[in-house]
Amino acid sequence: MFLTQTFARIPWAYTVRRLVYNIPVYMGVILLVMGCLRMHDPIYSYLGKNATEQQYEKFAEKSGLDQPFVYQYFSFLGKIVTFNFVDDPSWDKPGESVGELISKSIGPSLAITIPALCLTSLISIVVGLLSAFNRGNLFDKSLVVTAVLGMSVSFLVYIIFGQYFGAFVPKQHFGYDIFSVSGYEPMFPHFPTSFADIQYAINTWCYYCMLPVMISVIVAMGYDSRFYRAVMVEETGKDYITTAKAKGASQAKIMFVHMLMNAMIPIITRIMTTVPFLITGSLLLEVFFGIPGMGRQLILAIGAKDFPVIQAYTAVLAAAFIVSNVLTDVLYAIVDPRVTLR
Amino acid sequence: MPGCESPMQYKDEDRMNCRQLLSIFIVSLLLVTACGKPTPPPTDPGPKGNGSGGGSNANSSGDVDTSNDKVETDGGEKLVLPGDGLKVLRLPMVTDGPKSVDPVRGSTQYENKACAQIYETLLQYKYMVRPLKLEPLLLEEMPKISDDQKTYSFKLKKGVLFHDDPCFADGKGREMVAEDVFYSWKRMADDSISKNWWLLEDTIVGFDEYYKEQNDAETFDYTAPVSGMRVINDHEFEVELNAPISRFLYIIAMFQTSVVPREAVEKYGEKFTRHPVGTGPYTMKEEGWITSKSMVMNRNPNYRDEFYPVEHMTSDKLAGMEKPAGAKLPICDRIEFTYYVEDQPMWLKFRNREIDYTTVPAELLPEAFIKRSKKLRKGYIAEGIVAHKIPLLDFIFIGFNMEDELVGGDSDKAKYLRQAISLAMNWDERNNDFYNGINVVYDGPIPPQLDGHPTNHKAPKSYRGPDLTRSRELLAKAGFPEGKGLPKLDYYVSKGGNSAEQAEMLERQLGAVGITINKNLVDFSTLIDAVNNKKAQVFSFAWGSDYPDGENNLALFYGPNESPGSNHFNYKNAEYDKLYEQIRTMQPSPERTEIYIKMRDIVIEDTPYLGSMARTRYYLVNPRLKNFKPHEVFSNWVKYLDVDESKSKP
């Protein structure tokens, strides 16, 4: 019933129209990206000053950068449309294509970033609601102080202490191997066909990913809770809250149904701005926890001047931004019937 | 519209909320109980080994003492341990991972570590013997060298098989033959794939011409002949050198010269960099390598009969290293290399016994070792952890550009100035403050353990500071009393680590005699450019020896090697150059060592650099790991390692 209602609220015509309108925007972004990346000769940067002219020419031919820019542009667009980067070899990691690098590293990144975003948003919204509803009292003040304290501590400190007290100490001193200090294993080494496979996936995720997710949630919670509190505080003064109270609605109902529904626009805006960054992963978490994700690959590629990887990553990120913008508008329409999209 | 429902509805929905909350609680509980190390899904266990080995590395102090070592060749007690389970080595790599496992593309020690388990070279270093000595690996015997020391005759072992792979007919690895050796070396000449041509440049008759012709041609022809490379039959071949170049034997022990099969290179093309097919004790499937995470290698089931060596040092006997003598190699069934970019996770994993050894990062040295004695702390010894101290073949120095108008040149004044700067600098302070005093500070360019290195690290005539009185005297003789009139020296150093702090210390030390510096902290690539273009007046650099021979370091001062070559100092001394040309073709001998010493002293007197320092690497080994005696010049020692599963838990 809920799904049917939600489905019915999706402004399909508008969604398709917005997606189509964004095609030239995306083409423009790609043009800009490709132009910028070629401002400093990528082959020269990669091979270094000691490369001979012959080596330069051979490399340009091999990488396709000797072709006219227009050809390179449309050829790259073709690859984006078909999402086919398999024939695009990484310069720095011979034998591995850009497509392979992205497909192998996106899973580990999403295994951390999606649960982290969901949990952070969920907890922060609840904390924000409770804080706003108890505005000014000790409970609210202590939540605000905790949030500020949490924001003041560096991400690195959380990681170092998290690894030490969350994974190392329980195993070393109490024999409980709850979380891995670092490392990553794919949750689905093969297509799941049984309950045991699902159980293995949950088990693997908890062992390798839960600790970095918890750290990520703790770090982000301070910022998000304060934001959601501010949003909710604004809502508490509105007339519909007084009406609900007058009609005898419980506190929980007022907070989690009426207030939440009305505050969905800023909540969606906040969440959707972070969505494109889900695919870029978190560099610090990936480095410390040995997670072979997108953030690490991108930094390695930038350090090694791995031009095809940088170009493809930028294109994927730009696409993610556009899709998330369209999605944000669609979600506005779903959560608030007053929003009409034409 | 929100807020318009009847009060009755609230009660029902509140009950619903309770049920939903209960469900969320149960799911959370399930997630928490799911935590704990997952049982790995079924995978290919790989071939099982013989499970032979034994011995313990620890002595009562927890340190491996290699002083007064002598070579022993008695076999000792042989142990064969029964065991049905797989023996898995869990080893760290302090890197984001090798970029390739194609030997000709490799240059870093991580690529060396990966390639050395899969591929093999003609020669290898004796595992337990120090100083390092070469022995045959793919060869039946050491190569026969002609009287004029220009022609080397090689005899390959029979029955050496490449790994089973679909690139061969029926997927069965064929026998390695002489043509494979030349094919592999010719790949080193191919500029489109190789980074290592310099190893064989100006070495083999006709090879330089081949290099030029083939790289200029449209397609590289690996079948084109090289006059100095002659196949006699499948197992015998000859190599004729341009001159009696003594380093040639070391070169053919380097992993870049490993033997690869042509079929695999042609079948996999670029993918060969991730799909290795060699003759080594371990094999690696493409899916065994997860970029930026790990590498898993399995025992090569077709590995020929190679055995744990008998030859060892006296200290090895104390550590029980000689016990597995005669055990079939490789001893373990699987190697799991995990990459670590940060020290903390590697250290915690080591302390939880999840990896078998670790190098000790500088900031953790005081935690593991007593600062003054550098002995392992009691708690670690009680846990059965063993420390290994490995001095590296390093030459860390601060160089002068000898073509610079102020500090360069061979005039007496310029020499006095360089000597005065050298005497004002305190390497020991740098070592103590930045490296906990674990490095070796020494005179000359030849690192410890090599012929030509001065006794007790001090040459008879030395300009190594601190000796401020002498420094002031020489500064005055150079025409700059108390540094008056001396312009600021332009000092280039690569930024990162504690370079800025080290530069501050240098500024203070030199400032004590009135010498001032202008610090340029730059990217490594900028530093290289500045040095190669002869623009850096004074620069901080380090050189790690490619092979254990002082000749490798003495070449750094050979005139024709000037920048952009390895003579970054642009140092030119006719007498020195003549001596270098002489030693280049000499085999190790007391006469050659005498010349090394003479060359070393010439360089010390001319002082084209301030120095020197060599790093020391500390390894800690968990009791699970046995037969561990690493060296950083070669990396194929993993095949000798064994594990004791009974000591797996902390």
Strand tally of chain B, please? 24
Helical residue percent of chain B?
25-40%
Number of helices of chain A: 15
Mean pLDDT of chain A: 88
How many domains is the backbone of chain B divided into? 2
Largest interface comes to: A-B, 68 and 58 residues
Principal-axes geometry of chain A comes out as globular
* CATH secondary-structure class of the largest domain in chain B: Alpha Beta
Q: State the distance separating the first and last CA atoms of chain B.
A: 62 Å
Task: Sum up the structure in keywords.
heterodimer; A: 342 residues; mainly alpha; MetI-like fold; 2 domains; 15 helices; 74% helix; B: 650 residues; alpha+beta; Dipeptide-binding Protein, domain 3; six-stranded mixed beta sheet; five-stranded mixed beta sheet; 16% strand
What does the model show?
- The complex is a heterodimer of chains A (342) and B (650).
- Chain A has helices at residues 2-9, 12-37, 42-47, 53-63, 69-82, 98-133, 138-152, 155-174, 195-236, 239-246, 251-262, 264-274, 283-288, 294-303, 307-335.
- Chain A is mainly alpha-helical and 342 residues long.
- The model of chain A has no long low-confidence stretch (mean pLDDT 88).
- In chain A, helix 6 runs antiparallel to helix 7 (138-152) and helix 7 (138-152) packs across helix 9 (195-236).
- Chain A is globular and about 80 Å long.
- Chain B has two domains: 71-334, Periplasmic binding protein-like II (D-Maltodextrin-Binding Protein, domain 2, 3-Layer(aba) Sandwich); 394-614, Dipeptide-binding Protein, Domain 3 (Dipeptide-binding Protein, domain 3).
- In chain B, the strands form seven sheets. Chain B has a six-stranded mixed β-sheet. In chain B, strands 2, 9, 10, 11 and 13 form a five-stranded mixed β-sheet that branches. Chain B has a four-stranded antiparallel β-sheet with strand order 5-6-8-7, with helices on one face.
- In chain B, helix 11 runs antiparallel to helix 13 (468-477) and helix 17 (574-584) runs antiparallel to helix 18.
- Chains A and B meet through helix 4, helix 6, helix 8, helix 9 and helix 10 of A and helix 1, helix 8 and helix 15 of B.
